[in-house]
Structure formats: structure tokens, C-alpha cells
Specification:
SH3 type barrels, ribonucleoprotein, five-stranded antiparallel β-sheet, Ribosomal_eL27_sf, 60S ribosomal protein L27, alpha+beta, structural constituent of ribosome, ribosomal protein, 7 helices, 2 domains
């Protein structure tokens, strides 16, 4: 962009930036003359003559620029309260938060509700039928199913544990050319039933809908003697073999490779 300027008897095409600079200089000169006139009227000619003349740059910096250019605005702080929040000498300092006194519940129901809000109960996901993997002991790495859960524990075992029924020996792979006798032999499984701590099992997202209620109906008492334990293992073996022959839940009857 350019502006057409009349210089003498000629018209010259001057760039816009140069034109703006020339107009600014002219404005500064007019402002200097106005300031000098005002100062002459206020001080008088004698005092003006006695003052040593200042260089042109100093005059502009002391008078013209201070009068023409506006002062830069001071940026306020982003958060005004942040500067006075923790300043004890400030008059506008905010008070420190005072600790609240604990309120004692008046009724047992309110006490139970307050305790539940402070320590919410976890969701019970270890339920009968949940497929788990044992992590410790003789059958570590074996798949099992939760039969019964003891959240609060018992007198003999004062901790959370559960009764599981699992596979100690998995069925072998059956092929087409196998005879009926050989297929029946390969389809056998060996089961175990035991009480396991919650920390010694790894729950999975799968469930096995096999009814084990009558297998260990007595709970820990079903494992009190050897005869009861053998009978419970035989019942669990019959249920699992029946499920394997139906062809359902094949994932439970495959051995973990690790």
C-alpha cells in the first residue's frame, strides 16, 4: 500500500509506512511547540534562558515522549487472592481453614451409616460358580470352581476363605479313530476339594453352572474325615465328567500351559 503525497509542485507516491512515520514526526513537532509555549507562560523568559539547553534526544525523552506516549498498563495478577492467601502481613489475607470437630452419632443406625460412608463395603464378586485358578499349594495352576464362600471366616480359619472343587487331572484329547473303550478312558477326570484362602486364588470372568450344592452341603465338616472327603470328590468327579461329555464349557477342561 502507498499514499500519494504533494511535495512542492510534484506528487510523489510514498509507501504507507514512510507516510505514517512522516505524519508522526509532524505531530511530534507540533506537540513540542505546544509544550514549549506552555512552559514559557508558566516559568517566564528569564528562567528559561538560565537553564542549560538540553540535547534534542534528552528533550524528547523527558518531555515529548512522556507527554505523547501513554504509560504501559500494569497487568493485575491472575489470581488476586493467591498473593494474600498465605501472607499474614496483608490486611486482606484470608483466614486459614479451621479443622472441624467430629460429630458423634446419636443412634446406632446413624453410627452404622457413618461407618459405611467412611469405609464402603466392596462388591462381593467371589460367588459360588465362579471359575478361579489356584496360585499356591499342591494344585497351583489348576482350574477350580467356588462351591461355598466364607467371607467372615470360621473359628478354625479366622480369615476369608472358600471351598473349591477343581481338576487335579484333565481329560486327554479324543480323536476319531479311538474306540469307545479308549474314548471313555480318555474322558476321565480326577477332582480335588479343599479350603483355600482368598489370597491364594485368582478369580476369572467365567462362571461354571454346575450344581455342587449337595457335594459339600456340610461345608468344612464335609472335609473333616477322609471318608467324607473321598465321597465328596467322587460326587464332584461325576458332575464334571457329565458336563464334559455334553461338550459344554470346553475351556474349563483344557490344561493351562505355563
Amino acid at each position: 500500500m502507498a499514499e500519494l503525497v504533494l511535495k512542492g509542485n510534484r506528487r510523489i507516491l510514498v509507501p504507507k509506512l514512510l507516510f505514517e512515520a512522516e505524519s508522526c514526526r509532524a505531530t511530534n513537532r507540533e506537540r513540542e511547540e505546544e509544550i514549549a509555549t506552555v512552559r514559557y507562560k508558566q516559568v517566564g523568559p528569564t528562567q528559561l534562558k538560565s537553564d542549560p539547553p538540553l540535547p534534542l534526544k534528552a528533550q524528547r525523552s523527558s518531555t515529548v515522549r512522556s507527554q505523547i506516549q501513554p504509560s504501559k498498563p500494569v497487568r493485575p495478577p491472575r489470581n488476586p487472592s493467591a498473593t494474600t492467601l498465605f501472607n499474614p502481613l496483608s490486611t486482606n489475607a484470608l483466614p486459614f481453614p479451621q479443622p472441624t470437630k467430629p460429630t458423634h452419632p446419636s443412634t446406632p443406625a446413624a453410627a452404622a451409616q457413618q461407618q459405611q460412608q467412611k469405609h464402603p463395603k466392596m462388591v462381593k464378586f467371589l460367588k459360588p460358580g465362579k471359575a478361579v485358578i489356584l496360585l499356591q499349594g499342591r494344585f497351583a495352576g489348576r482350574k477350580a470352581v467356588i462351591v461355598r464362600v466364607f467371607e467372615e471366616g470360621t473359628r478354625d480359619r479366622p480369615y476369608g476363605h472358600c471351598l473349591v472343587a477343581g481338576l487335579a487331572k484333565y481329560p486327554k484329547k479324543v480323536i476319531r479313530k479311538d474306540s469307545a473303550k479308549k474314548t471313555a478312558k480318555k474322558s476321565r477326570v480326577k477332582c480335588f476339594i479343599k479350603l483355600v484362602n482368598f489370597t491364594h486364588i485368582m478369580p476369572t470372568r467365567y462362571t461354571l453352572d454346575v450344581d455342587f450344592k449337595d457335594v459339600a452341603s456340610g461345608g468344612p465338616d464335609a472335609l473333616s474325615t477322609r471318608d467324607k472327603k473321598v465321597a465328596a470328590c467322587k460326587a464332584a468327579k461325576a458332575r464334571l465328567e457329565e458336563r464334559f461329555k455334553t461338550g459344554k464349557n470346553r475351556w474349563f477342561f483344557t490344561k493351562l500351559r505355563f
